[in-house]
Design goal:
CATH class of the largest domain: Alpha Beta
Structural class: alpha+beta
Bound molecules: pyrrole-2-carboxylate
CATH topology of the largest domain: FAD/NAD(P)-binding domain
Distance between the termini: 40 Å
Helix content: 25-40%
Number of helices: 11
Largest sheet: 8 strands, mixed
Number of domains: 3
Strand order of the largest sheet: 6-7-5-15-16-17-14-18
């Protein structure tokens, strides 16, 4: 149990302070500036302070903490990827997530549920078998299961999908989990703040000054800040930032929509994914069904959500769980997914000295939060890429060293 909870229970006056301080002002110089106050930026700030003793760090967020992808995802954590590079990377993230509530002394409602990726065709089953073998080879629990095992663990599922698209098997990944996504940002923010990091909300970066190929500072809506190290961790806003330093990336931005239903009594333990039906669903600790579908099939830099999305999603949901027809959708929203051609992230150093990038998360940024923070902190502190992220550098696109991860996507594309 987080120690903080215990202190809270034992103290009658509830002396719990604010999550993090509001710094008096922006200084005119920092050792490191992190652009983006989402989970990734805050995690990098935390590990910079905790693991490397670098505390003269400013996190600049143009809006409020967790206002981007961190607070807009469907909160799924898993490591059942397709490539060895992806499996190793996300496996480390799952490990960090498992201890994170204790580490940050904040209850993140991390809940291991088991994760099913359903196969409706033999071709999909073949990819699942491949993933299971790569996973097991690297020590990650994943197994191909048949209809009988699926029915035992999730008896509510209509295995025949109303006769339209029967389920033939699934990739079962027992460590698959969910967590409270915005608490992850708050936890990292608070822990970074406690170690001296400054968090500046409503602070937009409007330019980055580069001299002789090296970063020398950032322009903001609150003035110029000198620094030699800048980390961009802004997901769907990445192209705006990389333009400031003259870097090109192959990113395209697509909206990804999601929604939650009214709270229901707990009935769905597992996380259920069907990329063929464009649906993933889990039940949160509050009882809501948290769901999403495919990426919107066009490039758009907007977080609006559509009727078309809920209609399509509801149709597929009812194919899997017909008894949900009376359940109401409470809220819907969208986030921005920065998609790479190979569905792997872009991480590490760049051709501009002092400019580091953490981007290309597509539809799996949340689950990478701890490991991206840890490996980017290492990379900034040592100016040497952490071994887990070496396959993911921006340079791989020029070198044709892609890491094809599309087969591990839960989200239809
Ligand atoms: O990759 O698990 C996933 C996922 C679910 C929703 C978006 N991405």
């Amino acid at each position: 149990m987080p120690y903080r909870l215990l202190k809270y229970v034992l103290n009658k006056e509830y002396p719990d302070g604010r999550m993090f301080r509001v710094p008096k002002g922006l200084k005119n110089r920092y050792d490191v500036v992190i652009i983006g106050g989402g989970g990734h930026g805050l995690a990098a700030a935390y590990y910079l302070a905790r693991d490397h003793g670098i505390t003269d760090v400013a996190v600049l967020e143009q809006s409020y903490l967790g206002s981007g992808g961190t607070g807009r995802n469907t909160a799924i954590v898993r490591s059942n990827y397709l490539t060895p590079e992806g499996v190793r990377f996300y496996d480390e993230s799952v490990r960090l997530f498992q201890d994170l509530s204790a580490d940050l002394d904040l209850n993140l409602f991390y809940s291991e549920r088991g994760h099913f990726t359903l196969a409706h065709t033999d071709a999909t089953l073949r990819t699942m078998r491949w993933r299971a073998e790569v996973n097991k080879h690297l020590g990650v629990k994943s197994e191909l299961v048949g209809r009988v095992e699926i029915a035992e663990i999730c008896p509510e599922l209509d295995l025949n999908c109303g006769g339209h698209f029967p389920i033939v098997g699934a990739l079962y990944h027992p460590p698959g989990a969910i967590a409270r996504h915005d608490a992850v940002a708050w936890g990292y923010g608070r822990a970074a703040d406690q170690r001296g990091v400054e968090i500046h909300q409503q602070t937009a970066v409007t330019g980055i000054r580069v001299k002789s190929g090296e970063v020398i500072g950032v322009e903001t809506n609150r003035g110029f800040v000198e620094t030699r190290k800048v980390l961009s961790a802004v997901a769907g806003y990445t192209p705006r930032i990389t333009q400031m330093v003259g870097l090109r990336t192959p990113l395209v931005i697509h909206p990804l929509q999601a929604c939650v239903t009214e709270p229901l009594k707990p009935w769905l333990n597992a996380i259920i994914v069907s990329a063929s039906l464009h649906l993933y669903v889990s039940q949160s600790s509050r009882g809501e069904l948290v769901m999403g579908a495919a990426l919107d099939p066009y490039e758009l830099h907007s977080t609006r959500s559509t009727l078309d999305f809920v209609e399509g999603l509801a149709g597929h949901l009812l194919e899997l769980f017909p008894f949900l027809s009376d359940v109401k959708v409470l809220r819907q929203w969208a986030g921005l997914s920065d998609m790479t051609p190979d569905f792997s992230p872009i991480m590490g150093k760049t051709a501009v000295k002092g400019f580091y990038i953490d981007a290309g998360w597509g539809t799996w940024g949340f689950k990478a939060t701890p490991v991206s923070g840890k490996t980017m902190a290492h990379t900034l502190a040592s100016d040497d890429e952490h071994e887990l992220i070496r396959p993911f550098t921006l340079a791989r696109f020029a070198e044709y060293e892609l890491v094809g991860e599309k087969g591990a996507a839960s989200v239809g594309h």
